[in-house]
Design goal:
The structure holds 2 protein chains of 2 kinds.
Chain A: E1 2-5, H1 8-14, E2 19-22, H2 30-40, E3 60-64, E4 67-68, H3 80-83, E5 89-93
Parallel strand pairs in A: 1-5
Antiparallel strand pairs in A: 1-2, 3-4, 3-5
Chain B: E1 3-10, E2 13-20, E3 27-32, E4 37-43, E5 51-57, E6 61-67, E7 75-76, E8 89-91, E9 97-99, E10 104-110, E11 118-123, E12 126-130, E13 138-139, E14 160-166, E15 174-179, E16 182-186, E17 194-195, E18 217-222, E19 230-234, E20 238-241, E21 249-250, E22 263-265, E23 273-275, E24 293-296, E25 304-306, E26 324-326, E27 334-337, E28 343-346, E29 354-357, E30 363-371
Antiparallel strand pairs in B: 1-2, 1-30, 2-3, 4-5, 5-6, 6-7, 8-9, 10-11, 11-12, 12-13, 14-15, 15-16, 16-17, 18-19, 19-20, 20-21, 22-23, 23-24, 24-25, 26-27, 27-28, 28-29
The chains are: A alpha+beta, B mainly beta.
Chain lengths: ~100, ~375
């Protein structure tokens, strides 16, 4: 079970609280976590990753364990603390605009 | 009892304003989708409780929402807008080739006959259609592929397909407009297209007076009962076509400035047209700080200012291209929203105005549903 913290606009869209939990098939990676998130909350398809290219949106960031994982390869394993559920995986709307 | 429902898209959410036929007392519901840019909402003419909405964000992309209960509740629909085939390139601002990239849906136009069919005008300019209520979208690629697409260039607001005009007599006839490519017409339901800009003059930006494409058309409107007559607010110039966009003539006439964005036609008088003149393309606000709607009752050229109830001093808002609409009650109502967050309504064809709301986020679009 992976804990995922969502930004407020996506919480509202998915009608969930700040944190959700998802079951990941296979090794927990950015890709598999977002796949699981979209499977549980289909309304989030296309909001974190472009629906066509599947690339992370430019103003979305992935944080965990006080690290910015945004530029890690999407299939890189997530930190052990995220895998065990000790730490959440953060989906963050980047600070931009006014 | 008859009434109206005004659908307002803003920079930070959507609002639904409702009133009975008197249009004096209003219920304001919203914001729906708070914090998101709501470029456009529009109801199905054949199933008014069904409303489609374009929800977008620079962070989280594009969503399409659908309500089947008049805007009380919403469901996300499909948001895959994939250009058909290899998208190719259009011109960038500096004239270099630029790949076609989807940015957002500017305008949603529900079918006049089928509640499950809806058209979407998008940036970068293309026309999509859904025939399953918004679950899936297919590009009508003949528009971009008709020949001139690689020469299209964005206007200051982006290369958006912002206007979709359907013909109540003929479902095959579709007129669309793109900034800054111009008007295009299809006679076969969107399979094939041709430019429809004869008579437009854009000397401020196109040296060729007879340029087939490249015109910065801001909006096109028509009267349902006389669909061959189209009115256009171009970047500069108010234009009229009497032959279904085959040709255009200027009808700016005695307007104090013919720059503007919004234009619409009275619900019962095909020759009564409304515009909101804006000072210029470098100063996007009304002349002299006076917010004035101009009305022509003779199809253009002769215009009268409508000021009663509108601010006549220190007003420096804009009225965007999709932010004016009319209802079809016996005494035609006219509505428009401003970038200052006001939505004004007139229940007497424009003779007098009153704000429904004064302090919404910047208004991007206004549509009206006339309810039985």
């Amino acid at each position: 079970m992976i804990r995922v913290v969502l930004p407020v606009h996506l919480r509202d869209l998915a009608h969930v609280d700040r944190e959700v939990q998802v079951d990941v098939v296979g090794e927990p990676t950015q890709r598999s976590v977002i796949d699981a998130l979209e499977a549980s909350y289909p309304m989030l398809k296309g909001t974190i990753r472009d629906p066509i290219t599947q690339r992370r949106r430019a103003f979305v960031r992935f944080f965990a364990c006080e690290e910015d994982l945004s530029h890690d390869p999407p299939d890189a394993p997530l930190p052990e603390a995220v895998v065990t559920g000790a730490e959440p995986f953060f989906v963050v709307g980047a600070m931009a605009g006014g | 009892m008859a009434g109206v429902r005004v659908l307002v898209g803003t920079r930070k959410g959507a609002f639904v304003l409702s009133s009975d036929a008197k249009r004096e007392n209003w219920d304001v519901a919203g914001p729906h989708f708070a914090g998101w840019e709501m470029y456009h909402l529009k109801g199905s003419p054949v199933e008014p409780e069904r409303i489609y909405a374009s929800q977008s964000s620079g962070w989280f992309g594009q969503l399409i929402q659908r309500s089947d209960d008049g805007g009380a509740t919403w469901q996300p629909m499909g948001n895959q807008f994939q250009y058909e085939g290899v998208p190719g390139t259009h011109q960038w601002y500096d004239g270099t080739p630029h790949p076609w990239e989807f940015a957002r849906v500017w305008h949603l136009e529900p079918s006049l006959t089928d509640p499950d069919t809806v058209y979407a005008g998008v940036e970068d300019a293309a026309l999509f259609r859904s025939t399953d209520g918004g679950h899936s979208w297919q590009e009508l690629a003949g528009l971009r592929g008709h020949g001139s697409g690689s020469s299209w260039q964005p206007g200051a607001g982006g290369m958006c397909l912002h206007t979709i005009v359907l013909d109540p007599r003929d479902p095959g006839r579709i007129v669309i407009a793109i900034s800054a490519a111009g008007v295009f017409r299809s006679d076969d339901g969107g399979e094939t297209w041709r430019p429809a800009n004869r008579g437009l003059r854009s000397g401020e930006s196109i040296p060729d007076e007879d340029a087939e494409v490249g015109h910065c058309v801001h909006h096109v409107a028509r009267h349902a009962g006389r669909p061959d007559v189209l009115y256009m607010q171009k970047h500069w110039d108010v234009m009229r076509s009497d032959d279904g966009a085959e040709s255009w003539v200027e009808v700016s006439g005695d307007l104090p400035t013919d720059f503007g964005f919004a234009i619409d036609v009275h619900a019962h008088e095909p020759d009564t047209v409304y515009v909101v003149p804006i000072k210029s393309d470098s100063e996007h606000f009304p002349l002299d700080g006076q917010l004035r709607v101009y009305r022509s009752r003779v199809g253009g050229n002769e215009w009268e200012p409508l000021t009663k109830g509108l601010p006549q001093a220190n007003c420096y808002v804009n009225v965007l291209r999709d932010a004016m609409a009319v209802d079809s009650l016996d005494d035609c109502g006219v509505y428009f929203g401003t970038t200052g967050g006001q939505v004004y309504a007139s229940a007497d064809s424009g003779d007098s105005w009153a704000p429904i709301v004064r302090d919404l986020p910047a208004v991007l679009s206004v549509e009206v549903q006339t309810l039985p």
